Amino acid sequence: MCGRYELKAKARELNRHFPQLHLSQSEMPHSGEMLPTDSVLMITGNGTGYLATKARWGLVGSFLDQEPRSPLTTLHSEGLASKPFYSKILKRNRCLIPATAFYEWQSLAGAKQKMRISQPKGEALMFAGIFDHHPLAGTTCAILTTAADASVSPVHDRMPVILGRDESSFWLGE
């Protein structure tokens, strides 16, 4: 997955997806295209419902003494649970990162062109993610990726893990 995605959904659309969210339009990010290190919208489960908060896109592990130059914006979902630090985060710090599209770069006639990938009707996508709290960097997050499906593989070999409504609830559950 490329290091950019789009969020142009309205708060009311996300509230329909998660009735207990109660997100206001003023809490939505102002930029349509999200870039690494931007403040992005993140949805977490809080036991009684859902909570929308902002996090910086680019995971900075709480165990680090200082921030890395290039924090991880995406992580391969395969094998993540077998890595000590990530297995702990997967148990307690799962999140959803809403989007309306993501971008991949494709070479066409020798030139790179940004390709926008979205739902046919423009509905919101829910990317599986993880987050952590770092003493200096604050709350940071990363998007989990998987092997590309048939619709994305002609452009790129990876894509975000996209969850449906039931899968999203399960992902944020205990």
Written description of the protein model:
- The strands form 2 sheets. Strands 3, 4, 5, 6, 9, 10, 11 and 12 form an 8-stranded mixed beta sheet that branches. The protein has a 4-stranded antiparallel beta sheet with strand order 2-1-7-8, with no helix packed on it.
- The protein has 174 residues and is mainly beta.
- The chain has helices at 11-17, 84-92, 165-172; strands spanning 5-6, 33-34, 39-45, 50-57, 74-76, 94-99, 101-108, 111-118, 125-134, 138-147, 158-160, 162-163.
- The protein has 3 helices and 12 strands; from the N terminus they run E-H-E-E-E-E-H-E-E-E-E-E-E-E-H.
- It is globular.
Structure, briefly:
The chain has helices at residues 11-17, 84-92, 165-172, and strands spanning 5-6, 33-34, 39-45, 50-57, 74-76, 94-99, 101-108, 111-118, 125-134, 138-147, 158-160, 162-163. By secondary structure, the protein is mainly beta. A hairpin with a 4-residue loop joins strand 3 and strand 4 (50-57).
Average pLDDT for all residues: 89
Low-confidence stretches: none
Helix share bin: 10-25%
**Radius of gyration using CA atoms only:** 16 Å
**Number of helix segments?**
3
Task: Give the helix/strand class.
Answer: mainly beta
Shape summary: globular
Query: What kind of sheet is the major sheet?
Result: 8 strands, mixed
Order of helices and strands: EHEEEEHEEEEEEEH
The count of β-strands is 12
Note the beta-strand portion. Answer: 35-45%
